[in-house]
Amino acid sequence: MTIIAAGGTDDGDLGTSAAKVERGLSDAESGAGVVVLPDLGSAVLTVRAVLEDHGDAESVLLADAPFVEGAVAATVTAAAGGDIKAVVAAAEEARHVRKL
């Protein structure tokens, strides 16, 4: 399991770089698939655009999950041997975890 950060623009500003997303997808792919957890709306748009050109839609899944809580749940599930669909489900279920 690999966690890759792909935030920010190529020149270090706020935003999302398609090139960074593409590199992150390539670096993270180990054969089991890649789960993407975007933080904000612009990241969702950029990731969707990159995925349209990616080709293998089943090996990369975009999770509609809270960024931090989803990342923790996804990491735990992946480390326990969960497949890509279980990892996405765990990330998305994190939305319902109460803090107080």
Question: What would you say about this model in short?
Answer:
The chain is mainly alpha-helical.
Description:
This protein is mainly α and 100 residues long. It has a single domain (18-96), classed as Rossmann fold (3-Layer(aba) Sandwich). 48% of the residues lie in helices and 6% in strands. It is built from four helices and two strands. It has helices spanning 18-28, 41-54, 67-79, 84-93; strands at residues 34-36, 60-62. A two-stranded parallel sheet has the order 1-2. Helix 2 links the parallel strand 1 (34-36) and strand 2. It is globular, with a radius of gyration of 13 Å. The protein starts with 17 loop residues before the first helix and ends in a 7-residue tail after the last helix. The model has no long low-confidence stretch (mean pLDDT 91).
For CATH, the homologous superfamily is named as: Phosphotransferase system, mannose-type IIA component
What is the count of DSSP helices, taking H or I runs of 4+ residues?
4
Helix content: 40-55%
* The number of domains: 1
The CATH architecture name reads 3-Layer(aba) Sandwich
Query: Which spans have pLDDT < 50 for at least 5 consecutive residues?
Result: none
CATH class: Alpha Beta
Give the helix/strand class. mainly alpha
Instruction: Give the DSSP E fraction (strand runs of 2 or more residues).
Output: 5-15%
Shape: globular
In the sheet with the most strands, the strands line up as: 1-2
The total of beta strands comes to 2
Instruction: Tell me the Rg in angstroms.
Output: 13 Å
